[in-house]
Amino acid sequence: MAKLEKLPAEAADRALAGLEGWTREDGKWIAGSYRFAGFPAAIAFVGRIAEIAEELNHHPFIAIDYKKVTLRLTTWHAGGLTELDFQSAERYNEMYRASIAENR
Ligand SMILES: C[C@H](O)[C@H](O)[C@H]1CNC2=NC(N)=NC(=O)C2=N1
C-alpha cells in the first residue's frame, strides 16, 4: 500500500494493536504520551522528535506539559491515518525506549 494512502479502519486498528502506548483519538488521529524525569529532559526529547519528523517529512502535533510530552499524528494529505503515522509513532517509541535506557 502506498505510504500516503489512507488506511481502512480495520487496517489502522491492526497497526495500532502493534503500537505500544498509542491510542486512536478519532478516525483521523493517533496519540501517544511520554513522561520524563524533568522539564529539560522533555524538551531534549522534543528536539529529537523534530529530527525524526524532518527525516520522515512527517510532523506530529506536539504538546509539552511539564514532564509529559504528547504527540498526535495524522497524515494531512490523506485526510486521515496512513502507514507513515504508525511508522513515525514506532520511531518515537524506539527513541523513548533508548532514552530511558541511557538514563539508567
Ligand atoms: C510538502 C510536505 O512534504 C508536506 O506538507 C508534508 C509535511 N509534513 C507532514 N506531516 C503530516 N503529519 N502530514 C502530512 O501530510 C505532511 N506533509
From TrEMBL:
Keywords of this entry: Lyase
Catalytic function, reaction form: (4aS,6R)-4a-hydroxy-L-erythro-5,6,7,8-tetrahydrobiopterin = (6R)-L-erythro-6,7-dihydrobiopterin + H2O
Enzyme Commission number(s): 4.2.1.96
SUPFAM superfamilies, alphabetized: PCD-like
Primary enzyme class: lyase
Record GO terms (molecular function): 4-alpha-hydroxytetrahydrobiopterin dehydratase activity
Family per record: Belongs to the pterin-4-alpha-carbinolamine dehydratase family.
This protein's name: 4a-hydroxytetrahydrobiopterin dehydratase
Species name: Paenibacillus artemisiicola
